[in-house]
Specification:
Number of domains: 2
Helix content: 40-55%
CATH superfamily of the largest domain: Rhodopsin 7-helix transmembrane proteins
Low-confidence stretches: none
Largest sheet: 6 strands, antiparallel
CATH architecture of the largest domain: Up-down Bundle
Length: about 425
């Protein structure tokens, strides 16, 4: 332990050359803001700096990442220094191990034994030096994380597409819900009730998704956790209602089953809203002891900058719950779509109308069913392991506007039913 007196600089920082103090060339340079010592008596104005020789005790919680710098702990004994206006600055010498290194300044959350980047900004100065600025004090290091081959320009374009699509989807999902509320005849239709339930799930998903990046910038963990939980619950509800759409379609067209199940819609609602609530509720119980929801970052390949958003922070949860759940729904819905499509085109042979007209109508029906059953979400499988911008753009366009397509489907099917009723009425009068 060295006890030294260090004077502050004119810009309000207390500098410390840890490499000189600890006789270690890999130790970082540190600038501690004077703000850290406000409201602290002169006798308590001390700062502790620890540079660890070994990183072994900090390897818990590493997910697809490697510590490539010394771990340094900076604390004011007896005081919890957080929410600094003038950030703590640390310049880390790093051990570059690959040309595709992606740097991320992070701190070690000792309560949950995991690394997080909340409140830290990463700025590489060179290949071997990284500047970290953080608004709190604890144990810090530079991590090399798996690079995401999405450059800044492409990310910005896809973000605009997603936000525009989600806004459009949210507006038309709201229209679907409102029209259902004011139309008493629509409320009697089970199919329409299922469509509206899916629209409601999409509405919540779109709104919470658009708040995700904004919530991450607040650096308030509780807010980000709330948004992440809302997104996760809404997403699982969407998948569940898509599966219900497929089940109802099968009973309606394939089995030609006259649905007279007692409290049929109530039971479907318990499944559509209850199963996701049960899954998310179990994860929230886990979250109390292990961080499941919070700030997640994606690194842009051309700048090494990170974009933070609120989502599930545990990779195991992502694969065991989200992806596994969707795979089951996707396979079930795909089978139903194939069976229904074959039935539709088989009936075309017995139709006396011009073949080109019926083919176009049937193809449009199948495309509408693809949106209704969420099969376009399967585009995500084609981006696994690599970046395909064409697939990513199609994924953003189709899935962010799903609420709009469902609104069109409800309008078109409602119009078709009205025309059929008018035709039957005319035939009866004749």
């Amino acid at each position: 332990m060295n006890v030294v007196i260090i004077n502050s600089t004119a810009d309000g920082f207390v500098p410390m050359n840890a490499a000189e103090r600890f006789n270690d060339t890999d130790a970082p340079n540190i600038w501690i803001p004077e703000e850290s010592f406000l409201n602290i008596s002169d006798a308590e104005r001390r700062v502790g700096v620890v540079v660890y020789d070994s990183n072994e005790q900090f390897t818990l919680g590493l997910e697809n990442a490697t510590i490539i710098s010394k771990v340094v702990r900076i604390e004011v004994p007896g005081h919890d220094i957080v929410n600094l206006t003038n950030r703590l600055i640390i310049q880390f010498p790093v051990n570059k191990t690959t040309d595709n290194a992606t740097y991320s300044c992070q701190f070690y959350d000792e309560e949950n034994n995991t690394w997080k980047n909340d409140g830290c900004i990463t700025k590489p100065i060179s290949d071997n030096v990284v500047n970290c600025s953080c608004n709190h004090m604890t144990a810090f290091a530079v991590l090399m994380i798996d690079i995401k081959d999405i450059d800044e320009q492409q990310w910005e374009i896809m973000s605009y597409i997603s936000y525009i699509g989600c806004s459009l989807s949210a507006v038309f999902s709201a229209f679907s819900i409102l029209s259902y509320i004011v139309n008493s005849n629509a409320r009697k239709e089970v199919s329409t009730s299922i469509h509206v339930s899916l629209s409601a799930a999409l509405f919540h998903l779109n709104i919470s998704f658009m708040l995700s990046e904004w919530a991450a910038t607040l650096n308030i963990n509780e807010v980000c956790v709330f948004i992440a939980v809302t997104i996760h619950y809404s997403l699982l509800c969407c998948f569940t209602w898509m599966a219900i759409e497929a089940l109802h379609l099968y009973l309606l067209l394939v089995r030609v089953f006259n649905i007279r199940i007692k409290h049929y819609m109530v039971k479907l609602s318990l499944i559509g809203w209850g199963v996701p609530a049960l899954l998310v509720g179990c994860l929230l119980l886990v979250h109390s002891s292990r961080s499941v929801y919070g700030t997640k970052s994606i690194t842009l390949s051309d700048t090494n900058q990170t974009n933070a958003f609120c989502w599930t922070t545990d990779g195991v949860i992502l694969y065991t719950v989200n992806i596994s759940y969707f795979i089951l729904v996707f396979l079930f819905n795909s089978v139903i779509l194939i069976v229904v499509s074959r039935l539709i085109f088989r009936l075309q042979k017995s139709d006396n109308r011009p073949r080109s007209k019926t083919t176009f109508k049937n193809a449009s029906t199948v495309l509408g069913l693809m949106s209704l059953l969420g099969t376009t979400w399967g585009l995500a499988f084609f981006t696994s392991g690599y970046t395909n911008y064409l697939i990513l753009y199609l994924f953003c366009i189709f899935n962010s506007t799903q609420g709009f397509y469902i609104f069109l489907w409800m309008c078109l099917t409602g119009r078709t039913k009205k025309q059929q009723e008018e035709k039957r009425t005319t035939t009866t009068d004749t």
